[in-house]
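Sample A.
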Amino acid sequence: MIVKEKVWAIFSSEPFAWDQLGEVMETLYKRFFSEWLPTAGYEQVDGLELEVTGSKDGLQFVELWFAVRKIM
């Protein structure tokens, strides 16, 4: 898959236990849509977003990447 160059707003979690995934994802989405996006002067581009997950030392982490552009 080729992703064209974009500006990304990235929201990262702290390490967490796997059974907390739903809560962690909900918190990150809330931070983007309810807190950051309305005040940052940016808008989301075509609803484009990526979810990056991984683990380290028995804990999970997640990053949500949202394609954004400056509002003119």
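Sample B.
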Amino acid sequence: MHQEVNPPESPPEASADGVVWLRPEYQGRHGELLTLADGARLVGVSKSAISNW
């Protein structure tokens, strides 16, 4: 799925990369984010197992 970086209907609080943070305490903590695949590797299970949890 393709998403525009800053679509015309973006709220004014959207950051430069088009992300709207619903929880401001997480802003600036991009390095701590994990993908589903990263989380699965971390605990040694498949991505589908993580999804089911």
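B remarks: Residues 34 and 42 are 10 Å apart (CA to CA). The radius of gyration is 15 Å.
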